[in-house]
Design brief:
Strand content: 5-15%
Distance between the termini: 64 Å
Oligomer: single chain
Number of strands: 5
Radius of gyration: 31 Å
Number of helices: 9
Amino acid sequence: MNTLEKVETFIVLAECRSFTEAARRLYCSQPTISHHINHLEQDFDSRLFHRTGRKVELTKQGEVLLTYAKQILSLVDEASVTIKKVDYFEQTLSVFVSNYIADYFFADLLHQYKEISRKKCIEINSICYDDLKRSLQDNLTNFAIMPIYPEDYYLMDHYDTSVLFEDELSLIFPNDYLWDTRKTLYCRDLHNQTVLLPKSHY
């Protein structure tokens, strides 16, 4: 019998106020419930319940303990979740990558990190550029592979950035073309367009 079991028994009995009901909820015998409560009362050198027939009521000391007991179980649950997260992150490399890079470059990039991939499971999250920025800002990840634009001052101020590659292309088209008034063009703008490109690995 450990302390957490006694604390859980105490909370259940305090809520249902019946040894019979507490035993039913905890799938144990009534003597087990009594044993747990007796041990707690010895540990705290205080009577925790008034027993009147089949009903039980918390004493003032019991009411004080109930407040702390609930905090204890809440902290234990929180610790369990945190420990599981630590175990997950130790065993898993979670990578957030933009859809564009995932489609065109990620296989080559991942190959460079094959030593890491042998030691850890890799979870790949391919999301759009705006969601990537939001994931970083909301601390959902601290590692992302994505394009960086001059206006991304928040990312450059708050994160270390490493340039994997740079590729500057001059796009040439007639003055009356539909892009003539655009200040910025994106990769999606080239979708279904016939474009002449220099020979390149990418």
